[in-house]
Amino acid sequence: MPEGRFVSFEGIEGCGKTTQIELLSDYLKSRSMPHTITREPGGTAVGEGIRRILLHSETIHLTAASELLLFYASRSQNIAEKIRPALERGEMVVCDRFYHASMAYQGYGRGIPLDFIEKVTDLVCDQYRPELTILLDIEPAVGLARARARNHQRVEDEGRFEAENVEFYTKIRNGYLAIARRDSRIKIIAADRSRQEVHRDILLAMEI
Any idea what the CATH number is for the domain that residue 111 is in? Predict the structure, then answer.
């Protein structure tokens, strides 16, 4: 792995990832720490095109396998165009979701076998794995209510996943927690508090 640090943020819809990544970026800027922010799906021109397909509320009848492979297509481009170059420059990379999201959403949520997802991860991600993953944990009903309110304020339509029910997000949350129990690199942070309290705990977890 190149010299830079690689940190990912995970959690169900409405957990506050975007807000916390913005606060972290402001903190890093204030200390003149070079960093690159990216997201999945997205981060590159190809990835943003895939994002529009995956998240648009009118994208219906997308199979679980198609969904999974589209996420990994975006991830492959993100590694090649954003993550790897930034790490090689010695920067910190902060990614809004990475492969743990596929395990939680398409694995625990959609029912795709985890061993298959792990094989695709090995193929696409190779050595590029976060050294730290911040898992923002929140009750599904609370997160989903936040996400639906947020989506009404967006210019672009990204409401496809917000249309899922609480039961779906309960599977995903439980999946994330199960993954975290097996991986010491994942730090669980309660997200149902003030943004400053959450931000403080993220900095502590990152030891910066």
Answer: 3.40.50.300
Residue 194 buriedness (CB in 10 A; 0-12 / 13-18 / 19+): exposed
Starting at the edge strand found earlier in the chain, the sheet holding 6-10 runs 35-39, 92-96, 6-10, 132-137, 186-190
Tokens, residue 54:
């995956």
Q: Quote the pLDDT of residue 161.
A: 86
* pLDDT per residue as tens digits for the range 134-155: 999 999 999 988 888 876 665 5
Asked whether residue 1 is domain-assigned, the answer is: no
d(CA 54, CA 57): 9
pTM greater than 0.90: yes
User: Which range of residues forms the domain containing residue 180?
Assistant: 6-206
Length of the chain, in residues: 208
CA–CA distance from 120 to each of 39, 58, 71, 152, 205 (Å)? 19, 27, 11, 34, 29
In a domain, 90, yes or no: yes
